[in-house]
Inverse folding.
């Protein structure tokens, strides 16, 4: 009997370790031979810990399972039980998805290269090994893949720039410093399917002429870092990394580096400084990292999801991937649904799904049962969208036209008890705390922003235009997105929820 229980951090936080211990103890007590596989999460966090069992009809799901449920599951022969959900792939959450990047996540043992290859792993790399570097870059360009870390910059253009640069060495850097609130896609890939990230980095190296890669992860992700370290070791032993890629290609190796918790190191140039052992401070651009990046050499800096998607493109073809999505937003996007919701988790789908469908249908509305007031898309620097904008399709340009950002596709839901003036203050305070201090608009502007919001809260309505003017200065003058994007949550709160500002001012004055 094979029983699957996720090693994912969210599942662990909800008791997966205790469930595994109970399964092993119960099997021992009954004298049964049971193999426990620690897979990644399927993304249905409200059902974690999700226990799955192999059967003639496929994987059967049970959840959420607690240690106290285990004996009853054995008694029922893992059949009819109160926690039985049916075949995992038939669950509505799973059937409605287009799983490409996350196709293996939750399915395989993340540290089994045998499992990985049995589910399509290394197919894309083997194809890339038979292509020229120019053809590799062209394939990524033709797919329409854009950076999934927030900026949405076309991946192929970045690769082409590095490929065309002349240097004695080049680098691939994976930005795994996933610091945005409500985001966990990078972590899920690193914990549930790390070899797809490694494969994507190797293909990137083949395309641009780099033979060294770095994964810059966060100290707050100990489980992901442990899995990644093991995966890199296994990849070297297998010959996927090392002196010759699979014995067919040039050398390529990867080193895992762990950051120290600075949010600003999610910005590519601050990350590069940290990677070099320097203080994590934003660099002025130009020069671009694609021309002068790590140690002054041409460097590809891509997000985890961007690189983890590359093997899909090479396995299925650029046109296959490009056929999903809308406009210039091609392929799929892993929606990370969090906050005040009934069903939180990761849902991979093609670009284009309306925000209202995501919030009302997928998330099931609020956990409190109160009306949805605002949805913040794109992390702590994303705009707040009211219900009036719920018809907006999920796409880079579509959100930009409404004053918003997709960012890392984190979606945080708030009910009608949320105080949007307090949320605006939080954005400014967050920027003030996390600023690297390099530029004045961010370093000073955020501090003045907190003071200005506090004036409004004390009843000074005349400070509202000052707040708007300050936001324009930060947006136009900041060196990086930390200061440049902080105005998005502030101005969207002020624009869409003015009563929260004027009411606070009026109440304070009275």
């Amino acid at each position: 009997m094979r029983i699957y229980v996720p090693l994912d951090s969210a599942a662990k936080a909800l008791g997966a370790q205790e469930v595994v211990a109970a399964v092993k103890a119960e099997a021992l007590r009954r004298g049964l031979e049971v193999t426990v596989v620690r897979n990644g999460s399927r993304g249905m966090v409200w059902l974690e810990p999700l226990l799955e069992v192999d059967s003639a009809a496929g994987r059967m799901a049970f959840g959420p399972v607690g240690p106290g449920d285990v004996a009853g599951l054995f008694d029922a022969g893992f059949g009819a039980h109160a926690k039985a959900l049916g075949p995992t792939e038939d669950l509505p959450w799973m059937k409605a998805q287009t799983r490409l990047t996350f196709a293996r996540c939750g399915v395989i043992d993340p540290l089994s290269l045998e499992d990985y290859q049995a589910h399509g792993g290394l197919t894309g790399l083997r194809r890339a090994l038979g292509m020229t570097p120019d053809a590799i870059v062209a394939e990524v360009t033709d797919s329409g893949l854009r950076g999934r870390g927030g900026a949405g910059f076309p991946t192929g253009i970045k690769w082409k720039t590095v490929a065309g640069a002349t240097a004695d060495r080049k680098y691939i850097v994976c930005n795994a410093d996933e610091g945005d609130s409500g985001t966990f896609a990078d972590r899920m890939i690193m914990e549930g399917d790390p070899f797809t990230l490694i494969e994507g980095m190797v293909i990137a190296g083949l395309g641009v002429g780099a033979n060294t890669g770095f994964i810059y992860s966060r100290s707050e992700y100990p489980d992901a870092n442990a899995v990644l370290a093991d995966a890199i070791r296994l990849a070297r032993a297998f010959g996927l990394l090392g002196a010759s890629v699979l014995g067919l290609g040039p050398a390529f190796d990867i080193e895992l580096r762990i950051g120290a918790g600075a949010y600003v190191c999610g910005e590519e140039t601050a990350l590069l400084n940290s990677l070099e052992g320097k203080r994590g401070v934003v660099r002025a651009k130009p020069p671009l990292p694609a021309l002068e990046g790590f140690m002054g050499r041409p460097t590809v800096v891509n997000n985890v999801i961007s690189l983890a998607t590359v093997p899909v493109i090479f396995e299925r073809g650029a046109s296959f991937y490009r056929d999903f999505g809308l406009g210039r937003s091609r392929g799929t996007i892993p929606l990370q649904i969090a906050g005040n919701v009934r069903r939180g988790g990761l849902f991979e789908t093609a670009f284009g799904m309306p925000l209202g469908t995501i919030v009302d249908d997928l998330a099931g509305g609020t956990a409190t049962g109160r009306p949805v007031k605002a949805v913040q898309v794109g992390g702590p620097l994303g705009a707040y969208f009211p219900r009036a904008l719920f018809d907006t399709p999920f796409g880079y340009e579509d959100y930009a036209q409404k004053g918003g950002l997709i960012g890392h596709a984190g979606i945080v839901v708030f009910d009608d008890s949320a105080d949007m003036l307090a949320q605006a203050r939080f954005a400014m305070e967050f920027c003030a705390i996390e600023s690297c201090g390099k530029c004045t608009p961010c370093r000073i502007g955020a501090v003045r922003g907190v003071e200005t919001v506090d004036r409004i809260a004390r009843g000074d309505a005349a400070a509202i235009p000052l707040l708007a003017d300050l936001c324009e200065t930060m947006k136009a003058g900041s060196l990086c997105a930390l200061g440049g994007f902080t105005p998005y949550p502030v101005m969207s709160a002020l624009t869409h929820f003015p009563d929260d500002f004027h009411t606070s001012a009026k109440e304070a004055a009275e």
Notes: DSSP finds 23 helices and 16 strands in the chain. The chain has a mean pLDDT of 96. Residues 247 and 261 are 38 Å apart (CA to CA). The longest strand covers residues 332-339.
